Amino acid sequence: MAAHKQAGPAAAGAAPLVVRCGAFGDIVMLTTLIRLLHARYGRRIDVLGAGPWTHALLEPLPEVGTVWTVRSRNTPYLLCPSQWATVAWLRRRGRGPVYVCDTDAPTLRLLQRARLKEEDRVQRVREDDEHDGVPRLWPDRWVRLGQRDPVHRYPCAGDVVAEAFRLPRLVVAPADRADVLQWKSAHGIGSAPCILFQPGNKRTHKRGRLGAGSNAKHWPATAWAELAQAIWNDLPDARIVLCGSPAEHGVLDDIHAATQRSPRMLNAARELPVPRLLALMEHAHSMVSVDTGPAHAAAALACPLVVMFGAASPAKWRPIGPGAIRVLGGERGSAGRVADLEVADVVHAWRALPVRDQPVLSMP
User: Fold this and answer.
1) Residue 228: strand pairing partners
2) What is the DSSP string of 92-139?
């Protein structure tokens, strides 16, 4: 449980609240709803979420007020001080519009304990999630949700063009830009083209190598190494940074080993807190990723991106953003595997990405 960046006193009820206890990519896509509600109500938006990435991703946004996270929603209430504190915070906030993105029983029980009134809530419904049986992308779901009003009406700042807020957005703080420049310099990357590989996903984040083998999102280390060699054939000076969490160090090390531990590749699993990762994405040459949260962050930051899908549907999960994005796989439904993708097809998709306009960055 934590709270930061207080939004200040409310003039007409509490600030709007968004409830979304999602994973990394879920929170990136949530920025669509946050920005839309900020435009509609003219106030910073409070967020109830879960996981430390929620703070790191949302707090830099000017549209965000308080970010509060609950440690667990599934632990019995009497055994979970984090839930007690969350309920107390929700009660202190007072009444205001509440946009409920999570409709699972534990989340709804928590809101009920906080005595949030039904007439103040706008809750996600099936019509938000699909159209004629076809799933909508998550940002499109949030655009629909954000245009609805609770039964108890609260003052709005005026009409907005909702589609203008469809693309997720992230903000990188100046201090994090300075940090990543120093980090790159320390690793001898400097101004060389920097290509990011994101091989891991939620399963490898939790279980490391044990979560890789049977994972529909797993692409073999040898395939990543072949892709790296093709990139170096085109850009001999390029540096490839393997991105991931500390738990994924072994997974990334297998890839590095498959390149004969090339000095042009860096396993950064133990060196990429979220703010540094976002700053790295902001001016990387490009990224190749499996279908996972950091791919959504790269898309939001306009990093040219190739995303490989396995069993998940790109119609529901593909990243969107202001930059170039190419999607591979996902056509076979639950039978699909990222491992089925040919290296040559991934190389072709990467080569088809347009060259990114690089921002002018310098050491402070």
Assistant:
1) none
2) HH-S--EEE---SHHHHHHHHHTT--GGGEEE--HHHHEETTEEPPHH
Strand ranges for 144-301 from DSSP E: 194-198, 239-242, 265-267, 286-290
Selection from 246, 243, 195, 253 nearest residue 221 by Cα = 253
Residue 311 CA to residue 331 CA, distance in Å, equals: 8
The sign of the dihedral angle between the CA atoms of 331, 334, 340, 343 is positive
SS3 at position 190: coil
Nearest C-alpha neighbor of 27 from the set 1, 2, 64? 64
Burial class from Cβ neighbours inside 10 Å (0-12, 13-18, 19+) for residue 300 reads buried
Reported pTM: 0.92
CA distance 156 to 41: 4
**pLDDT for 240-294, tens place per residue?**
999 999 999 999 999 999 999 999 999 999 999 999 999 999 999 999 999 999 9
SS3 266: strand
Kindly report, residue by residue over 53-105, the tens digit of the pLDDT: 999 999 999 999 999 999 999 999 999 999 999 999 999 999 999 999 999 99
Residue 114 to residue 40: CA distance in whole angstroms: 25
Asked if 224 contacts 197 with a C-beta cutoff of 8 angstroms, the reply is yes
Lookup: tokens for 283:
């001016």
Residue 162's Cα: distance from chain center in Å?
21
